Amino acid sequence: MPSDSRVQPALGALRRQIAAYRSLVAGTRERARTLLATGTGADRARLELGSFGAARIDATRFGELRRGFTLDALSRGRLEQAHAVLAEIDGAKDEIFTVDVPPGDSLRVVIAHALANCGRAFGAAGVAELVRTGRYEPERHDRMLAAYPFEWWSTAERAHAPPVVATVDGADLRAGSLAELLDGGMHIVLLVHGPSTPAPLVRLVTPGTLVVQAREATALQQLAEFEGPSIAALFEQEAAHFVHNPRAGTALWQRLAIGGLPASQSKKGIGGVSARQQREELAQLAALAERPAVPNGSIEALVPAGIGDPTDRLTAWLLGASGLATGS
Questions:
Q1: Nearest-CA neighbor of 38 among 49, 53, 24?
Q2: What are residue 214's phi and psi, to 5 degrees?
Q3: Do residues 116 and 149 lie in contact, with contact meaning Cβ atoms separated by under 8 Å?
Q4: CA–centroid distance for 253 within its chain
Q5: Is residue 202 part of a domain?
Q6: What's the rounded Cα separation, in Å, for the pair 251 and 292?
Q7: Of the given ranges (87-96, 191-200, 263-272), which has the lowest mean pLDDT?
Q8: pLDDT for position 263
């Protein structure tokens, strides 16, 4: 990956997400190691009985009497493969969370490939559980250790998604293609090189997704503190600066804050996106952030001054006036 001074600050902002993923991998690796160490028969029985039970019960006889899964040669081989995958990922440096999108390549494909690689930890965990319970079928489950794409991840796995930091040319920043990856606890940071369209991430604004466009790495701190799906882009050149923060309010205009716009609009296409389409991006951003108004003034003019959000005060006032308020 080409040197980019923004990579380390980005990884630092995602330290909590990285630590959570690494902790999950380490714990799963230890469980797989324990299964391998116990093997079959008396060793496994001693583990299940514990020190107190093993001192009073013949572990060999107990192992012979118990029914269920036994770790045969095939099962042991699959479990060893799963443990090897977990050991590889557990020992990987933070570069496992970083990717570089070669010029002209697909941003979506490169990031999906990185997630499939990290997702092998989830696949290995699944293999270990399938082996443990005697449900492993080689023809169905062998591929889980080679790659485990995001599409296969469960809700729980998506909640513990590893973050991704990607460097990408502005001309290749097709942000809309990343929409389906923004689920659970997914955090993506895009480090943009060169000119780009003015507001590419506006296509990703949804009620529960944190979206940040900025130039300074300090803006990434918002991702560190957010539990849900998040994406941020840091630009070298002019672009709109905005934040869509799901925690900032219930209405879209409350959640979306524009910090700055390009001084001028591009008159030429960038990466196949025409000047007209770029103007549409900015128009969409402005429309989403537009504050509701009434013919003779703002929302605040409709209700008496008070504490709290004006929209909430207006709702309460309308309910009271209609007789539908609680207790009326």
A1: 49
A2: -160, 180
A3: yes
A4: 24
A5: yes
A6: 10
A7: 263-272
A8: 86
H/E segment holding residue 252: helix 252-255
CB atoms within 10 A of CB 310: 18
Query: Token pair for residue 54?
Result: 């093993």
Residue 321 has a pLDDT of 60
Average pLDDT, the chain: 86
Q: Which of 172, 178, 167 is nearest to 271 (CA)?
A: 172
Q: Does residue 300 lie in a domain region? A: no
62 pLDDT above the threshold of 50:
no
In a domain, 322, yes or no: no
Query: Which residue segment(s) compose the domain that 17 sits in?
Result: 7-294
pLDDT of amino acid 227: 92
Higher pLDDT, 317 or 205: 205
Helix (H) or strand (E) holding 44: helix 42-54
Q: Is 314 part of any domain? A: no
Q: Phi and psi for 271 in degrees, rounded to 5?
A: 55, 35
305 token code pair? 């001054």
70-74, 97-101, 123-127, 220-224: the lowest-pLDDT one: 70-74
For residue 53, pLDDT beyond 70: no
For residue 322, pLDDT beyond 80: no
> Residue 204 pLDDT more than 90?
yes
Question: Starting at the edge strand that comes first in sequence, how are the strands of the sheet with 164-169 ordered?
Answer: 98-100, 164-169, 187-193, 230-235, 210-214, 241-244, 256-260
- φ and ψ at residue 2, rounded to 5 degrees: -60, 150
Say how many domains are in the chain: 1
Q: How far apart are CA 95 and CA 57, in angstroms?
A: 49
Q: How far apart are CA 95 and CA 117, in angstroms?
A: 12
Q: Pairing relation of β-strands 241-244 and 256-260? A: antiparallel
Burial 34-65 (b: 16+ CB within 10 A, else e): ebeebeebbebbbeebeeeebeeeebeebbee
| Alpha-carbon span 290 to 65, nearest angstrom | 72
Cβ atoms of 170 and 193 within 8 Å: the answer is yes
